[in-house]
């Protein structure tokens, strides 16, 4: 791109990205008619088999078993029409076969194992935003991040500070590679980055929404751990020594935690968005943690743009790291404000920071910023670069109240890739242990070390 060229100048609204036309229906050849007839026959056979299971043929079923089977039936019937992509690439025959198989297994499964089975069914759609919402669970007291190709502990029990920076290598004797393979095969995702985020609960430890690796119930349901109360975790410490520690799962607030030092972008993590003027660096730093509906972010964006107009030498850094998405409309106020002012929309004056925990509509926001303005993106590829589906609703199963989050719109039919940085920078383990932020440092140094 030539210097000063204005991307998307004729099109300031991100919504225009999504106009597309799909292929029309194919004519029904004789071969296709035969295939469809065979598929229909298979569906009828499976439906009859399902009815037989639910009718309780064979050994009498308990009320518990019948209710779980009814929930599976409800899931199999109601999820496809509710989902924006229907069954996506899954054949109806395969879908009904999976439901029938789970129904038949119910009497031999625990409640948790049935939940995992339904999660496995939902995962067949390969839509990382359509998912079974796992119930709250006791959690093992650690917070972790993916750093390079390993899982490292960044928050640990205060009584065991030696665990900080340790790499997780096994759970109850199972090598971490095998544990992750089982977790990610059972509860699948379209984008591997999203699975990596859920592996470690996006860097936190919360019983309300536990990640896979510290979810005491899930690990036990899958047979990874022998107990849902305690488990042994083997690590390689930051000094390189192998150690094994037994941790007890916490059912309420996780008490007494020690964390690595927090870089600036992790300050005020409970706030949906905040702004700080870095006067010495002549920077307006706008941190966007949550994409919330309402005008709060628009007001903050207007304040940031006003500072840039009053101080022509100041730059804007919009930090979308660890933002898991929500409503993409508020961000358009900032993008359109930048786009409308050529004095602000200059290469080297606007930066977006992203990382492997930037997801969903936040990844779309980074793409909109990059495509509509002359902003540079710095950091790591977003967790959800494809983000095909969006606009969720909740489907509640009738008997046991299991919740399924279901996407109801196709927002990226062309499968464009969002959140791809212009300049790739990834924090190392040393950066995490020291509380350093090389991504922000790169943005602050841009123009001084490499020139606009």
Radius of gyration: 25 Å
Largest sheet: 6 strands, mixed
Helical element count?
A: 12
Secondary-structure-based class equals alpha/beta
Query: Strand order of the main beta sheet, please?
Result: 9-10-11-12-13-16
pLDDT averaged over residues:
85
Tell me the fraction of residues in β-strands, as a range: 15-25%
CATH topology of the largest domain: 2-enoyl-CoA Hydratase, Chain A, domain 1
Count every beta strand, where a strand is a DSSP E run of 2 or more residues.
Answer: 16
Please estimate the helix content: 25-40%
- Distance from first to last alpha carbon: 13 Å
Give the CA-based shape. globular
- The number of domains is 3
List segments where confidence is low: pLDDT < 50 over at least 5 consecutive residues. 1-56
Oligomer: single chain
Say which CATH homologous superfamily of the largest domain is assigned: 2-enoyl-CoA Hydratase, Chain A, domain 1
Q: So what's the CATH class of the largest domain?
A: Alpha Beta
SSE succession: HHHHEEEEEHHHEEEEEHEHEHEEEEHH
CATH architecture of the largest domain: Alpha-Beta Complex
What's the SSE blueprint?
Layout: H1 30-54, H2 63-82, H3 92-105, H4 111-123, E1 131-133, E2 143-147, E3 150-157, E4 167-171, E5 174-175, H5 176-186, H6 192-199, H7 216-221, E6 230-236, E7 242-248, E8 257-259, E9 273-278, E10 283-288, H8 296-310, E11 315-319, H9 329-339, E12 350-354, H10 361-372, E13 376-379, E14 389-396, E15 403-410, E16 423-424, H11 429-434, H12 438-445
């Amino acid at each position: 791109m030539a210097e000063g060229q204005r991307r998307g100048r004729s099109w300031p609204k991100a919504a225009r990205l999504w106009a597309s036309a799909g292929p029309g229906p194919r004519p029904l050849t004789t071969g296709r008619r035969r295939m469809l007839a065979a598929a229909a026959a298979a569906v009828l056979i499976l439906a009859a088999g399902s009815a037989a299971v639910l009718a309780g043929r064979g050994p009498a079923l308990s009320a518990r078993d019948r209710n779980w089977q009814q929930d599976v039936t409800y899931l199999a019937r109601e999820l496809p029409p509710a989902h924006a992509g229907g069954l996506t690439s899954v054949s109806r025959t395969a879908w009904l076969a999976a439901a029938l198989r789970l129904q038949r297994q119910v009497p031999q499964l625990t409640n948790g194992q049935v939940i995992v089975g339904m999660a496995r069914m939902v995962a067949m759609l390969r839509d990382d935003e359509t998912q079974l919402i796992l119930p709250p669970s006791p959690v093992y007291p650690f917070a972790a991040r993916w750093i390079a190709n390993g899982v490292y502990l960044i928050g640990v029990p205060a009584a065991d500070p030696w665990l900080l920076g340790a790499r997780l290598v096994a759970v109850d004797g199972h090598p971490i590679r095998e544990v992750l393979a089982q977790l990610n095969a059972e509860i699948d995702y379209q984008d591997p980055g999203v699975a990596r985020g859920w592996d470690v609960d996006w860097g936190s430890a919360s019983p309300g929404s536990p990640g896979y690796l510290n979810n005491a119930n899930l690990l036990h349901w899958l047979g990874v751990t022998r107990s849902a109360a305690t488990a042994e975790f083997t690590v390689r410490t930051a000094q390189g020594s192998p150690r094994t520690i037994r941790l007890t799962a916490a059912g309420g607030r996780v008490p007494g935690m020690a964390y690595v030092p927090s870089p600036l972008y992790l300050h005020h993590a409970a706030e949906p968005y905040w702004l700080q003027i870095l006067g010495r660096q002549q920077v307006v730093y706008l941190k966007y943690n949550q994409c919330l509906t309402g005008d709060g972010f628009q007001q903050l964006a207007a304040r940031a743009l006003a500072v840039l107009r009053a101080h022509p030498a100041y730059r804007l850094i919009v930090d979308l790291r660890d933002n898991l998405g929500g409503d993409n409309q508020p961000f358009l106020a900032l993008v359109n404000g930048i786009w409308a002012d050529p004095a602000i929309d200059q290469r080297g004056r606007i930066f977006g920071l992203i990382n492997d925990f930037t997801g969903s509509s936040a990844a779309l926001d980074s793409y909109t910023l990059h495509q509509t303005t002359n902003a540079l993106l710095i950091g790591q590829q977003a967790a959800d670069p494809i983000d095909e589906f969006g606009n969720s609703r909740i489907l509640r199963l009738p008997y046991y109240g299991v919740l399924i989050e279901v996407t109801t719109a196709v927002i990226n039919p062309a499968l464009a890739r969002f959140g791809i940085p212009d300049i790739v920078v990834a924090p190392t383990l040393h950066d995490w242990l020291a509380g350093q932020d090389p991504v922000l440092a790169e943005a602050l140094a841009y123009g001084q070390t490499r020139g606009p």
